[in-house]
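Example (one chain per record):
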Amino acid sequence: MANSEILNKFKENISGTKNRDTSKKLKVGIIGTGWIAEYHLIAYKNMPDVEVVAGADLIEGKAKNFFENHGVEGARVYLSHKEMLDNEELDAVSVCTYNATHAECTIYALKKGVNVLLEKPMCVTLDEAIEIVRAEKESGKVLSVGFQPRFDENMKMIKKIVESGELGEIYYIQTGGGRRRGIPTPFGTSFIEKETAGIGALGDIGCYSLDMVLNAIGYPKPLTVTGYKSDFFGKSKEYSNKPEYADIFGVDDFAAAFIRLEGGIILDFRIAWAMHPDTTGDTIIFGKKGALRIPSTECWNGSVGGAMTIYHDVAGLQTETKVPILKTKEDLFDLKVRSFLDAIIDGTCAPVPTSQILYNQAIIDGISKSSELGREIEIVIPKI
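Predicted structure:
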């Protein structure tokens, strides 16, 4: 079979954009008005059937300036998510706060009967994730987690290739990502302080790397994990891009793990905010019939670092099939937000469901616990 024929098996037609009924607009609020909230607001402004009516931020005047800077008139502002949710009749909220308050804000919104688009990572601990899922089930509302890379055509291709059977049964995956110098401090210290972030590179970009491969293989349940974390760069005034922050750095800037998944699959994972090499290595999905190499990126950008390669045997010959880079026609944040809104309108399931991301969070939590204990641990997820 020619390479072009192999690639044609994974192609599909992309349907056009739906016509939207703008006679009744969804009323949306934003909790936390930092830099990531800007992307949410810009996406909502692109939606003709949405009206952003309120925002909440703990810092006096921040929400007001946020809306003014983006030309949103008439939006009401509050100093807490509870005050906003108690006083507004909202259809949905985006939770864009720092990691440590994701669970608190999300659970309160769900209990108020409001649909939630929750920025990644889902939260900090597995216990928090379980409480979020319980609140979601009790509310019957849509809760989608903010993994916009899922909507990239190259990410979809990875899943198509695995599901096609071209690689055969998957038995081992190496994945990760990172930056030579990329501790996220241009926006203050909320990413690096234990009280606000809870987790560092693990939650910031590690959750993306895990989702890329776990989504491709159907999100099998994690069983055990041996984890490692370090903070050598963040705590060093020599390497920190903000030397004054070294003393308050309280999270991981590097993590690695060996994870056993249901189905006999092994996941070899590492992630870094800062390191000396330029990559932790390409992602490679090993199957019994073939393998897929996914080039790493310099800094996680929601896609892949170059053309992917399928390694397989064709007519008895060891063959390599290049998978060219695919262009995603729409903005990934717009697609993330639109899919969430469509789930609300159409009464369908969340586009990035907590049933999957719960496993993602369980692995992150397991890595942290294993690192602290210095041994392999079993991942126990109760029935919810």
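Caption: The chain has two domains: 26-147+334-350, 149-332+360-378.
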